[in-house]
Design goal:
The protein is α/β, with parallel strands linked by helices. A hairpin with a 2-residue loop joins strand 3 and strand 4.
């Protein structure tokens, strides 16, 4: 049976993803981080890697209502999270280009530039 989440986990292991998280933790020490995307990729990351070095203030996705909780994180609607003024937004989507296009075409005109990767 096809299970995309397990394929993502295998992919992340091959990429030594904990090393990437540790690098992000150092880069963004003391910075408020918003996670964008709560699909299979984020679930796989959250369940298999140590994110404690990141100051994650919440997670934004199309499926969320404001102020709920998902996997231990406060949720934000996909188009309102810039109002929380995170220092950086980390995109947790396999197809990150979709998020980047949405940010530049829809969110930046409304909220101004913000850092993301």
């Amino acid at each position: 049976m096809f299970n995309a989440k397990y394929e993502i986990v295998d992919f992340l292991k091959k990429k030594n993803f904990q090393k990437r998280i540790d690098k992000l933790s150092k880069k963004y020490t003391g910075k408020k981080i918003m996670i964008y995307g709560a699909g299979r990729a984020f679930e796989a990351i959250n369940e298999n890697y140590d994110l404690s070095g990141l100051d994650i203030i919440g997670i934004a996705d199309m499926k969320f209502e404001q102020g709920r909780e998902f996997m231990g994180y406060k949720t934000y609607e996909y188009d309102t999270f810039p109002g929380e003024k995170p220092d950086v937004v980390l995109i947790a989507m396999v197809e990150h280009e979709i998020a980047e296009e949405f940010f530049s075409e829809d969110l930046v005109p409304e909220y101004g530039n913000f850092n993301y990767e």
